[in-house]
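Hi all, posting the design record for the shared folder.

TITLE: backbone redesign
STEP: 1 of 1
STRUCTURE INPUT:
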């Protein structure tokens, strides 16, 4: 089969997730269930809660997940890995050892003659100045080199505890619920982007940890009859692999936002 899958936000290794080993196994079972159906898999960021590579050291754990990625790429499945705001610090290991195709920026790609805009979603229209500052610091080359001056144990503890603190500040460790079309910054960003890029058919993001499937007009001045299918773009936020276990799948005709249920078999 030639299905294309999109998933994001597993945050593997998070100190704030009590069921992390079960969570990793569930993710691996899902990837195993689609390995003969998928032509490509897009991992849209924050698959790890904190990932930092040193010259001769990579983070402990995740062997089941990394092994499954390697198996998929060895068998000819394209695996695209987008860095998020928790797994920026990758310097070649995932590409060289696991065979993934790494993306550090939003990417526009054609899939089955449809144009997709793919991104983790962090930094796209977010009005939070504190987050903007942290993101700029995390992406700064000098700051990245400074982090790697730490012994790997200290560096990992620093990163994992920062990520845990960030998550535990939220209610029940979860993201804010859907804020509405006029307040969600990813929606506002997408509407603005569509004004200059009306060729985009699908926008797919992670980051917000909510499930969202929304149709947006490419030409807001047109009537509903004039817009039709070609006059609309579809925006999807993928949810997460902590509580929701959701993903999107596209077969060239249909785009579905699904939940992975253990033992459930889909065509």
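Okay, here is what came back for every position:
SEQUENCE:
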């Amino acid at each position: 089969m030639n299905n294309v899958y999109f998933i994001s936000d597993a945050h593997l290794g998070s100190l704030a997730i009590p069921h992390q080993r079960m969570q990793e196994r569930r993710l691996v079972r899902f990837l195993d269930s689609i390995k003969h159906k998928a032509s490509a898999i897009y991992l849209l960021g924050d698959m790890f809660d904190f990932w930092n590579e040193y010259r001769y050291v990579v983070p402990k754990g995740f062997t089941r997940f990394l092994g499954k990625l390697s198996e998929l790429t060895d068998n000819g499945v394209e695996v695209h890995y987008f860095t998020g705001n928790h797994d920026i610090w990758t310097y070649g290991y995932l590409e060289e050892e696991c065979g993934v195709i790494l993306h550090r920026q939003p990417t526009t790609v054609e899939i089955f003659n449809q144009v997709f805009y793919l991104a983790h979603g962090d930094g796209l229209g977010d009005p939070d100045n504190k987050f903007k500052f942290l993101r700029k610091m995390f992406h700064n080359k000098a700051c990245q080199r400074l982090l790697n001056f730490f012994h790997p144990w200290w560096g990992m503890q620093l990163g994992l505890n920062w990520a845990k603190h960030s998550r535990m500040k939220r209610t029940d460790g979860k993201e804010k619920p859907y804020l509405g079309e006029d307040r969600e910054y990813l929606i506002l960003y997408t509407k603005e982007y569509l004004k200059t890029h009306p060729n985009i058919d699908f926008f797919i993001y992670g980051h917000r940890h909510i499930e969202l499937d929304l149709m947006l007009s490419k030409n807001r001045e047109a009537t509903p009859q004039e817009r039709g299918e070609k006059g609309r773009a579809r925006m999807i936020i993928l949810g997460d692999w902590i509580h929701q276990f959701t993903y999107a799948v596209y077969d060239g005709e249909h785009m579905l936002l699904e939940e992975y249920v253990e033992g459930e078999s889909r065509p």
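COMMENT: The two ends are 9 Å apart (CA to CA).
Let me know if anyone wants the other runs.
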